[in-house]
Structure formats: C-alpha cells, structure tokens
C-alpha cells in the first residue's frame, strides 16, 4: 500500500487526485565542447538537424517535447531513446547528441563541467511535477508533514548568466 507518489506530468484519474508541486524549466543539455555550449540561449529552430538523445516515445515528457518540435517545424536526428534522465545525461556527456532536460536535473553536471545547459528562447517548455494520491485518502501526520516539506522545497536552478 502506497500513500502517495511523486510524478512528472501528473494526471488525475478515476480514484486518484493530484497535488501540484512545481514546474521545472526545460533546457538544452549538451556536451561541454558542443558548439551550443556556453551560449545564453537557443531557439528550437537552432536545434534543427542536431543529433538528439530522446526519452522513450511512450513517456509524457517525450510527447510534449515532440509536440513542441512539431509545432515549430523542427526536425532533429534521434540517435537514442532512453527511459530515464540519468542515462540520457550520460549519453549527452559522452557526446552522443544533445537533449532537452529539466533544469534541476543537470545542475550538478553543469557545475562540474561535464554538461552545458542552454536556455530555450521563444518557448516556455516546462515539466510539471506533482503528488498523486488516492481520492479521499487520509494522510498520517508523518505523510502530511512530508507533503508540506515537498511543497516548500526550493527548486535547484542554474545561475543566470550575464
């Protein structure tokens, strides 16, 4: 029995409710030596033709990224499709291609210099995060406190350049 789950792109379904937590800005993650590394920003059109490390097709985050690329008429060369952020970061670090990832997930790698993160310009691409729980669930005091802490937790952000 699980009291709650923390998920991206939370959806209220029959029997489940959602407590929205935050939205994380998506950034272009690339190898530290990539031509885009160090730039303050790039549009989706600036990614046209690039080798791209994508999320698996069935994940909501992939569907949203694909939708945005389609709307902008941008085609990238998908070289890998992976199911989690850590594996995608590793592929980008070895130069397999670039990706679009939630900013808080790349802060450590940017700080140590293994990845570069470039802000997306002209588009507000966000990854929503929320808590899902059973409808009419009564949280224990510990679970209630945990939810309160999650709601107050700051999101890691990269320092604004310039």
Question: What are its keywords?
Answer:
elongated; alpha/beta; 162 residues; six-stranded mixed β-sheet; two-stranded parallel sheet; 4 helices
How would you describe this protein?
The strands form two sheets. Strands 1, 2, 3, 6, 7 and 8 form a six-stranded mixed β-sheet that branches. The chain has a two-stranded parallel ribbon with strand order 4-5. The chain contains four helices and eight strands. 24% of the residues lie in helices and 33% in strands. The model has no long low-confidence stretch (mean pLDDT 90). With 162 residues, the chain is of the alpha/beta class. It starts with a strand and ends in a 10-residue tail after the last helix.
List the helices and strands and how they pair.
Elements: E1 4-8, E2 16-31, E3 41-42, E4 51-55, H1 60-71, E5 77-82, H2 85-93, E6 99-102, H3 107-112, E7 115-120, E8 126-134, H4 141-152
